[in-house]
Protein: Glycosyl hydrolase family 32 N-terminal domain-containing protein
Amino acid sequence: MFTLPESWVWDFWLADDGEQHHLFFLYASRALHEPDRRHYRASIGHAVSSDLQDWTRVPDALVRSDAPAFDDLATWTGSVVRHPDGTWFLFYTGATLTPEGNVQTIGYATSDDLLTWHKSPTNPVLRADGEWYEVLADGQWHDEAFRDPWVFPDPDGDGWHMLVTARGRTGPADDRGVVGHAWSPDLRTWELRPPLSEPGQGFGQLEVMQVEVVDGAPVLLFSCLATDMSAAAVATGATGGVWAAPAASLLGPYDVADAHQATDDTLYSGRLVRRRSDGEWVLLAFHHSGADGGFVGGVSDPLPVRWDGRRLDVLDPAVRSR
Structure:
């Protein structure tokens, strides 16, 4: 488990350099007193481990920029991939406050060693487009949701794809969550494309997405709390947490309406990663809700998982799954 006594730790993502696992995580000082205030004070920290359990903290990766900038409020969740030329790319969410509210866009930083990062002068490289995606001016949501980039290579070698937490432009306000999509030939320039799922499938937003092939099956992983689900979905008794949905391929289509809870809301921001010792898939997540309902923080130890043909099972009796 990874925790910081002086700070809350929440969303995170991982990279493997062939020798160590690298954990990039959001954190903010507990001196804020109120956990909800952490979002507007988030920086991106960094730790390394050989076994996904014992972590050593190393210098931070990124902090917010001086105003005015797309990330002058906070740096939020992202992902890390390696270009064929050896350069590491850290894609992340930049948050800024406008008079109308919080606006999120996507930028990136590069590194030769995963330790020292340099933000791109072309940031941001992606933002919500009113043709396919809801924007703040639509007045339907509390922010312009366009964040949590998950980047992966095209299965057929045709560039790179990015999944983005975004919202569609139609339907009830609490049911517009979609899998946003963009494509790039080189990781540096990006083309926004239509979403890979439809609104109206039970979620106001699908956070911290990831897609992987687990036990031979493409699986979409995301997180959503009950407070961000549609009224109809909450009426079924769903409580929120880490969700998994079957996919026809790594690029969908994604049957989000058929998603199931892999965990309850004691865990959030789940990430699938292959354990180096045996190559098996495990799930890490941050500890979200405590016994008293309050926010906890801190990244869990790895939890074994399997895909049983229709759902992702977390093989740990201590995790209450649905």
In short: Helices lie at 231-235.
